[in-house]
Specification:
Keywords: Signal. One of its GO terms (biological process) is carbohydrate metabolic process. InterPro entries: Glyco_hydro/deAcase_b/a-brl (IPR011330), NODB_dom (IPR002509), Polysacch_Deacetylase (IPR051398). The chain has 254 residues and is α/β, with parallel strands linked by helices. It has a single domain, classed as TIM Barrel (Alpha-Beta Barrel), CATH 3.20.20.370. The protein has 7 helices and 12 strands. Helix 4 links the parallel strand 7 and strand 8. The radius of gyration is 22 Å and the shape is globular. The protein starts with a helix and ends with a helix.
C-alpha cells in the first residue's frame, strides 16, 4: 500500500511540473510577437454585390451574406484590425483582417455595412487593396469615395499595384509599386504600408522589390497568416459566393 501511495505521489508531482512547463510555454508564445504564436485570419473578398451575370460568380458576395458574416464576427468577439495594428497583436483579442481586392465601386456596400455595425463593442475596420488604374472608372472607386472611407477610420486603403500585372514579369517596378503608393497617399493623406500581389503571383525578385517600399504583403495562398513566418508571404482565407455561414465559421475558427 505504501509503495502504491508513493507512486501516486510521484506521478502527481510529475504532472504538476509538466503542467507548469506547458503553461509557461503557452504564456511565452502568446506574449512574444516574434515567436510562433501570432496567427491571424486575413479574409479575402472582391465584389460585395449581387451577381448579375457578368464576371466570375464566386467573386461576388451578396451584401446580405457579407452583413451576416460581419455580424457573426461582432457577436463572437472578433476584433477587426488593419495592417497598422499588426505590431500590437499581443494586446488584441481575436484579431482578424478583412481585405477586399481591386477596389470595385461596389465595395461601398461593404463600407456602409461596416459603418452600420460600428459601435463601442465592435470597432469595424477593413482594408481595400486598390488598383491604381481603376480609380475614377465606371467599375472602380472614385478619389472622393476613397477619401471618404479613409477619413471614416473604418477603411484602410492599401496597394494592389497600378495596373494589376504579373509582377514576376514586369519591368516597371517603380510604377507598379512606388508610384501607386505615392498616388494613394496623396488621395487619403495616410501611409500605405501593405501590398496585395496581383493574382497572388510573386517570386523572390518580387519580394525583394516589395521590401524596398512596403512593410507587408499578402498572397492568395489559403490558410491562416503566421506573422512570425514572413510579413511578405501572408496567407489569406478566400470567401466565395458559395461560402455558407457554417463554412465561414469554420474558416475563421480553424
Amino acid at each position: 500500500m505504501l509503495r502504491r501511495r508513493q507512486l501516486i505521489t510521484v506521478f502527481v508531482a510529475f504532472m504538476l511540473i509538466l503542467s507548469w512547463r506547458n503553461t509557461e510555454y503557452v504564456k511565452a508564445v502568446n506574449q512574444d510577437p516574434t515567436n510562433d504564436g501570432f496567427k491571424v485570419p486575413i479574409l479575402m473578398y472582391h465584389s460585395i454585390d449581387e451577381f448579375k451575370g457578368n464576371g466570375y460568380k464566386e467573386l461576388f458576395i451578396t451584401p446580405e451574406n457579407f452583413e451576416e458574416q460581419m455580424t457573426y464576427l461582432k457577436v463572437e468577439g472578433f476584433t477587426p484590425i488593419t495592417f497598422d495594428d499588426i505590431t500590437n497583436l499581443e494586446n488584441i483579442k481575436k484579431p482578424i483582417l478583412i481585405t477586399l481586392d481591386d477596389g470595385y465601386k461596389n465595395n461601398m456596400n461593404a463600407f456602409h455595412i461596416l459603418k452600420t455595425l460600428n459601435d463601442s463593442t465592435f470597432q469595424a475596420k477593413a482594408t481595400i487593396f486598390m488598383v491604381g488604374r481603376k480609380i475614377d472608372t465606371k467599375s472602380g472607386l472614385s478619389r472622393s469615395q476613397l477619401r471618404e472611407m479613409s477619413d471614416s477610420g473604418i477603411i484602410s486603403i492599401q496597394s494592389h499595384t497600378e495596373t494589376h500585372p504579373d509582377l514576376r514579369e514586369t519591368l516597371y517596378y517603380r510604377t507598379e509599386l512606388r508610384d501607386i503608393k505615392t498616388k494613394l497617399e496623396e488621395i487619403t493623406g495616410r501611409e500605405v504600408t501593405a501590398l496585395a500581389y496581383p493574382a497572388g503571383q510573386y517570386n523572390d525578385k518580387v519580394i525583394e522589390e516589395t521590401k524596398k517600399i512596403y512593410q507587408y504583403a499578402v498572397t492568395t495562398k489559403p490558410g491562416i497568416a503566421n506573422i512570425s513566418e514572413s510579413l511578405y508571404e501572408m496567407k489569406r482565407v478566400r470567401i466565395n459566393n458559395s461560402t455558407t455561414l457554417l463554412e465561414f465559421k469554420n474558416l475563421v475558427n480553424p
